[in-house]
Amino acid sequence: MRFALFSAAVFAAVLALCPVSVAAAATKRNDNPPGPQPSNTQNHQGDNDFRVVRKRDGSLQLPVVPPEADLSPILCPLSMNVCPISETVPTTLEEWVEHGYECVDVREDLNSCGGCGSVDVQYDCTAIPNALGISCEVGACRVHSCKPGFTLALDGTSCVSTA
Description:
Helices cover about 20% and strands about 25% of the residues. The protein contains four helices and nine strands. It has helices spanning about 1-15, 20-25, 70-75, 95-100; strands at about 40-45, 50-55, 60, 80-85, 100-105, 130-135, 140-145, 150, 160. The strands form four sheets. Strands 1-2-3 form a three-stranded antiparallel sheet, with no helix packed on it. The relative contact order is 0.08.
């Protein structure tokens, strides 16, 4: 209710500042009846068009999604990816919720750089053997320094023995 009052007040203020022709166009009556509107739904903004539905008791109903769908837009904030906490990848939304997940930025996260480190160790920058200084740059692990007896590889992604 507060939002509706606030929106009406803001709309009135905008109309007061607009030239007469813009204000008249904005308040022009539409003689066509409105089309059908879904009730109690909210579209999630993201790559996939998932619908979140509210039940009559006010609780949310989990959306039905195909198994191959990326669930990151449903479970995580924008620009983050969903990764399982366990080593197995859940196949349904219910399994993701049951087994647990984390939202990571795979462009910067040291433990999930370029993918989920819990599923595949190649995405865990902290697991690079003999590396001391590491970073995740745009989804790729970079090694900056190595332990004594090792030197930085030419590609900057590993440490090689100096012996």
